Amino acid sequence: MYFCSMLKERINSLYLFFKSSNFFRGLIVTIAILIPLTTLIPMGHSDYAISIAIGILLNAPSDIPGSLKRKINSILISIALTMVVTFIVAISHPYFWLLLAVIALLSFSISLLSVYGFRGSLVSFSGLMAMVLGLTTKISDTPVWIHILCIAIGGLFYLCISLLSHWILPKKDEDQLLADTLDLTGDYLIARGKLITQKNTREENFKNVFQLQTQISEKHELLRELLLMARTKSGRTHFDEKRLLIFISLVDILELSLANNLEYHKIDALFKDHSQHLQKFIDVNFVFGNHLKELAETILKNDKIPSKGSLLLALDQANSAIAEYVAVVTLPKAREGAIILKNLYDYLELQLQKIRAIRQVLSNSELTSRTTLKSSEAQQFITTQDYSSRIFMENLSFNSPIFRHSLRFAVTATITYFFGTLLEIKNTYWIILTLLVIMRPNYGLTKGRSINRIAGTLIGAVIAAAIIFMTQSTAVYSILAAVSLTFALSLTQQNYRWAAVFFTTTIIFSYSLLTPNAFEIIQYRVLDTAIGALLAVVANYLLWPSWEFMNLDRFLVAAIRCNTDYLLSIKKFYRTKEVMDVSYKVSRKHAFLAISNLNAAFQRMTQDPASKRKAWEPVYEMVTLNNTILSTLASLGSFIQHHKTTEASDNFITVVDHIENTLLETLKLLDQKKELCPTEQEALILAQEKLKNSYELLVEEREKELNLGHSPIKEEMLLNLQEAHLIYNQLIWLKNLVENLKSTTHKYSSHVPE
């Protein structure tokens, strides 16, 4: 039974892979490459065919999800860059010392294009790939200018193929991103549930939650570009409206998940002997998470949506658990736990509304709500990349990780080519190619890719050798080379180790078509990959390393600043009771993104050698505190947004002002390494006491009602109790968090030099 279940799951995963946009894009690139090869080679124009295929392969990397305009521009820039680079390397090739200087200059300058974000890094990769291929022995007997022209034709041909595929399936990227985001959000809900139940592994679960949060925010950024940018330019179609509503619901689900903010040690103590009641709420998290994952498959398979019965049943059981808890523990002892469970229930009920909104869109029902976002407002949610020369100039400094990486790659590539030529190493360009695909600004990522590259190359070499040993059929080699290339291109972003396996088999089968000595090719391929991987790791460690602690301050500053803005938006909304405006959502988006960037930086820091993790303990505490602060803010904002609340009191404003000032003082500590200053406490203590008294007065009033026999609680009383309890507890906890952050930042500043 277990075996059948596992087999069914594997088949389903494989089916989803074949339906994915990654596989579709890999297939498109392979088809584009095969067209010139299969049409021109039989006609006797193999040189032209190979050059055009190289042009396709060089310029395909820039074809990534995003707006159509950015995609076209990046491919066109890539074409121009690869042409220029190919020409420069070609005319320098006969002159060894000139070629060394060209390698150094091109490697450094092209690598610096990565300062323009992910698209810039892909254009940079294409340019560097053109340089590496230019170092090979003569590719064809055609003149250089014809070879360059064919590269341009290949790039333009691929652009046309890409635009044609976009015209045929214009929304495939959107659907894939929505499905990926639904799947990750489902994992996130499940991971949040584990934080409560799995006390012994809570620290590891926190790290998993941080990582998922980062991945979700990255998907949100891509979806904003795809859904909002297209909408501002071409108006709103019914399809776009539906996808935008799903995206908005996903953002709200993330906020609500963050809002489910619990003092875990307090929860552990309160429900120590009553975990069965709390478990009902955790079960809802698991049911909701798995349902979102099923909806992700629904989008990719274009299938019927799953039943909502499990959602309603799980929520109903959670609601019953509140009454059971009160009956077992009895009032007044059960009051605090019951209020916590009631707040949890309200949060889960709101989550269900968002999930049902997604279900309604996917069921093709008539939309009951429409987005009212104007084009000018939509632009505020799109993170635009600055492509000005100012960004390039600002990064011409050792303070820039990209500058260090560019210099490191240029030096390593130049030295490798020098000694490779001196020692007459066959196919030195393979070593430099390995450097190119493995070396990253971060040491940990470079080390991880090196391990995966070596493992993938070895596995691919064994597979290819076994097939070559069994058959010498060129037809088999041709088919396997094409299939391997498709899988390699499809898996590059998903699973680098398996991508390396298929890239290796592609290269070996391709060379086997040209030379009978295939086993020699395998031998050199494995050896050169190992040398390149080793050089990449050593260079990252020794040559101007950019350890993550050196760059952490800017991520901490951004996180604290964005959390402060988010706090002020919540304060404004609580005071004015206005309909939720764009400024609140924009500040929320910036806070989510800043925390995700901080989490990603911390994750990179964990991959650095232990000796290079400066001030590790305060850093970990600061990252955790910033995440908890964001969760607490989301809890406050979500409650105020979805509940009828009373007027914001002066006491609330006093505490919020203190929190804001503490955050600003923390920023000064990071920016200028100033000493701590004493703060005024009298007004703050008085405000705290009054907030606490507000809750206690409501409790006393409720006690009087119970004494008079009024057991059923009025809805207004329940709402007031919930508000007073949540506002007081979350606000005081937030105050304690930011004060801890301030003192931890002071400790961190004393450990890390300016």
TrEMBL record:
<dbReference type="GO" id="GO:0005886">
    <property type="term" value="C:plasma membrane"/>
</dbReference>
<feature type="transmembrane region" description="Helical">
    <location>
        <begin position="97"/>
        <end position="115"/>
    </location>
</feature>
<feature type="transmembrane region" description="Helical">
    <location>
        <begin position="23"/>
        <end position="42"/>
    </location>
</feature>
<comment type="similarity">
    <text>Belongs to the YccS/YhfK family.</text>
</comment>
<feature type="transmembrane region" description="Helical">
    <location>
        <begin position="48"/>
        <end position="65"/>
    </location>
</feature>
<feature type="domain" description="Integral membrane protein YccS N-terminal">
    <location>
        <begin position="75"/>
        <end position="346"/>
    </location>
</feature>
<feature type="transmembrane region" description="Helical">
    <location>
        <begin position="145"/>
        <end position="169"/>
    </location>
</feature>
<feature type="transmembrane region" description="Helical">
    <location>
        <begin position="495"/>
        <end position="514"/>
    </location>
</feature>
<dbReference type="Pfam" id="PF12805">
    <property type="entry name" value="FUSC-like"/>
</dbReference>
<keyword id="KW-0812">Transmembrane</keyword>
<protein>
    <submittedName>
        <fullName>Uncharacterized membrane protein YccC</fullName>
    </submittedName>
</protein>
<keyword id="KW-1133">Transmembrane helix</keyword>
<feature type="transmembrane region" description="Helical">
    <location>
        <begin position="458"/>
        <end position="489"/>
    </location>
</feature>
<feature type="transmembrane region" description="Helical">
    <location>
        <begin position="526"/>
        <end position="544"/>
    </location>
</feature>
<keyword id="KW-1003">Cell membrane</keyword>
<feature type="transmembrane region" description="Helical">
    <location>
        <begin position="406"/>
        <end position="423"/>
    </location>
</feature>
<dbReference type="Pfam" id="PF13515">
    <property type="entry name" value="FUSC_2"/>
</dbReference>
<dbReference type="InterPro" id="IPR049453">
    <property type="entry name" value="Memb_transporter_dom"/>
</dbReference>
<feature type="transmembrane region" description="Helical">
    <location>
        <begin position="72"/>
        <end position="91"/>
    </location>
</feature>
<feature type="domain" description="Integral membrane bound transporter">
    <location>
        <begin position="416"/>
        <end position="538"/>
    </location>
</feature>
<dbReference type="InterPro" id="IPR032692">
    <property type="entry name" value="YccS_N"/>
</dbReference>
<keyword id="KW-0472">Membrane</keyword>
